[in-house]
């Protein structure tokens, strides 16, 4: 009898010890980044016929080196580079609060909405299939950086000509940057890029205003290793071990996309 009683008590104790614990009851009223990988995204066409994009991303927390490159968007089905690219970009919300001061690759976080495409490849010896090294890209972007000194809600509009330096084009070198002014949160920016192979120039403009022209001296006769045309959201976030990993979010409305010969 005594043995049976002790056995029963032991089973009860074991059952009590095995009771599952609650990982998160969400009583804090917000998602706890210490418990969850906090990423979210959406992509849809709304009732007014406009593309809506939204994306939240969090950098890595295992090292003070390297970056998270995060992109959400749409890629056009084209096989040759466009001579004209454009879109109406309207950033509805953006939050880029932190970088990582100890990251040895890059300390600043950036987020933007953009229209972007590849123009040609200028790799010495010619392009290599599937390797984007040497591909030259043009884009207009509307966004903000974590170290911005602009007032809250002020965005920067920039035309950028760059060349990929890695096979996946995660890193690139800037060839030219054109300041196209500022925009307010919720303001529509009609971005336009015009490429002229005949004059070795790329012209960036917004809202029908005067273009700012970038010239280049690279050989532009070869097709890009990867031909692409895209409207998208983009985060560049430095990984961070010594402080909380940077988190950023952006949402944008995109309309009237142009990719033409």
Q: Can you give a write-up of this model?
A:
Residues 1-18 form the signal peptide. Keywords: Signal. This protein is mostly beta strands. The protein has one domain: Jelly Rolls, CATH 2.60.120. It contains 1 helix and 13 strands; from the N terminus they run αβββββββββββββ. It has one helix spanning 2-17, and strands at 40-45, 51-58, 67-75, 84-95, 110-121, 135-145, 154-164, 172-184, 189-196, 201-206, 212-215, 229-238, 247-260. A 7-stranded antiparallel β-sheet has the order 1-2-13-4-9-10-11, with no helix packed on it. The chain has a 6-stranded antiparallel β-sheet with strand order 3-12-5-6-7-8, with no helix packed on it. Strand 1 (40-45) and strand 2 form a beta hairpin. The N and C termini lie far apart (92 Å). The model has no long low-confidence stretch (mean pLDDT 93).
* Lateral strand order in the biggest sheet: 1-2-13-4-9-10-11
Radius of gyration: 24 Å
CATH class: Mainly Beta
Distance between the termini: 92 Å
Helix and strand content put the structural class at mainly beta
CATH architecture: Sandwich
The geometry reads as globular
Q: Residue-averaged pLDDT, rounded?
A: 93
Q: How many helices?
A: 1
Largest beta sheet, briefly? 7 strands, antiparallel
Summarize the structure.
The protein has 261 residues and is mainly beta. It is built from 1 helix and 13 strands.
Helix and strand topology:
Layout lengths: L1 H16 L22 E6 L5 E8 L8 E9 L8 E12 L14 E12 L13 E11 L8 E11 L7 E13 L4 E8 L4 E6 L5 E4 L13 E10 L8 E14 L1
Antiparallel strand pairs: 1-2, 2-13, 3-12, 4-9, 4-13, 5-6, 5-12, 6-7, 7-8, 9-10, 10-11
